[in-house]
Amino acid sequence: MNVPDDLKYTKEHEWIRVEGDDVVVGVTEFAQGELGDVVFIEIETEGETLSFGDTFGTIEAVKTVSDLYMPLDGEVVEFNQALEDTPELVNSQPFGDGWMIRIKMSDPTQLDELLSADEYRALIG
């Protein structure tokens, strides 16, 4: 299972990559494997300021529909438009072109509350 060391993680199986004052968020390889083939991503929160734990969208796979949760407080400043036409990027490139949103962080200290790669590996066994 691929768990890049340079990312942070949530217990809800999202990854977070810090890029200056922004973070990029996607779902982990473990999550997309559990979901199965992703067929649709719905994110209508671009431009909204949300809090940690708020739902920022949904991911629909052949087997199920799951909510996507904010890993920290901030404004959703960008949605990965490529997922509109090719949601399967979440399956084929979960840590690359399959990213979901970019967030402008309200409180960077919240990054300290996220899981390290080692902690995430322990969580998924």
**Low-pLDDT segments, ≥5 res:** none
What is the number of strand segments? Answer: 9
In DSSP terms (H or I, runs of 4 or more residues), the helix count works out at 4
Mean pLDDT over the residues: 96
Strand percentage: 35-45%
Radius of gyration: 13 Å
User: How many domain regions?
Assistant: 1
CATH 2nd-level architecture? Beta Barrel
Class from helix and strand fractions: alpha+beta
Net shape: globular
Helix content: 10-25%
Please give a structural write-up.
This protein is of the alpha+beta class. It has a single domain, classed as OB fold (Dihydrolipoamide Acetyltransferase, E2P) (Beta Barrel). It is 18% helix and 35% strand. It contains four helices and nine strands. The strands form two sheets. Strands 1-2-3-9-8-5 form a six-stranded antiparallel sheet. The protein has a three-stranded antiparallel sheet with strand order 4-6-7. The model has no long low-confidence stretch (mean pLDDT 96).
